[in-house]
């Protein structure tokens, strides 16, 4: 698995979520956990596709690097997380990038559909900040550190 890191060993994480409160707390959890990853955010599925494909305004890869990990909400405007996952299936250059669905839904059919569309992991959004910090550390260990170390 290819993990894109900078000179400090930090990875780029793209957060696709339309709930600004969720994004705020996710950013805060990464910061409080001492994880120095570069976090970029988009507010809907179409922006996620634009970012990942390098469409304007995301065409400058120095400013908007390809992520090592996508944290993806399912229920977003313009294009759902399911539609982003479907799009990703046809992008050979992005096949190695893990996608962790972080959703408010715990419905079995959503989990099954996300997995069938290529999600590497599915997590229900944690209810409190301590659980969110635990999630962030686990995501780092499972998808960013392990890949960087050749696991």
The largest β sheet comes out as: 5 strands, parallel
Span of the ends, CA to CA:
8 Å
Mean pLDDT: 90
The SSE order reads EHEHEHEHEH
Tell me the name of the CATH homologous superfamily.
Response regulator
Order of strands across the main sheet: 2-1-3-4-5
Task: Tell me how many strands there are.
Answer: 5
List the helices and strands and how they pair.
Elements: E1 12-16, H1 20-32, E2 38-42, H2 45-53, E3 69-72, H3 81-88, E4 99-103, H4 108-116, E5 121-124, H5 129-148
Parallel strand pairs: 1-2, 1-3, 3-4, 4-5
Helix pairs in contact: 1-5, 2-3
Short overview:
The protein has 151 residues and is α/β, with parallel strands linked by helices.
Describe the protein.
It is a single chain. This protein is of the alpha/beta class. The chain has a single domain (12-148), classed as Rossmann fold, CATH 3.40.50.2300. It has 5 helices and 5 strands; from the N terminus they run E-H-E-H-E-H-E-H-E-H. The chain has helices spanning 20-32, 45-53, 81-88, 108-116, 129-148; strands spanning 12-16, 38-42, 69-72, 99-103, 121-124. Strands 2-1-3-4-5 form a 5-stranded parallel beta sheet, sandwiched between helices. Strand 4, helix 4 and strand 5 (121-124) form a beta-alpha-beta unit. The protein is globular. Mean pLDDT is 90; it is low at 1-8.
């Amino acid at each position: 698995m290819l993990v894109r890191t900078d000179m400090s060993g930090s990875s780029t994480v793209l957060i696709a979520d339309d709930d600004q409160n969720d994004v705020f707390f996710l950013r805060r959890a990464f910061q409080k956990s001492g994880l120095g990853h570069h976090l970029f955010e988009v507010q809907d599925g179409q922006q996620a596709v634009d970012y990942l494909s390098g469409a304007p305004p995301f065409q400058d890869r120095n400013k908007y690097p390809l992520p090592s990990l996508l944290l993806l909400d399912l229920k977003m405007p313009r294009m759902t997380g399911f539609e982003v996952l479907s799009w990703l299936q046809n992008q050979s250059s992005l096949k190695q990038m893990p996608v962790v669905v972080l959703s408010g839904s715990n419905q079995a059919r959503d989990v099954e559909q996300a997995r069938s569309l290529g999600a590497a992991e599915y997590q229900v959004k944690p209810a409190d900040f301590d659980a969110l910090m635990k999630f962030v550390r686990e995501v780092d260990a499972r998808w960013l550190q392990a890949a960087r170390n050749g696991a």
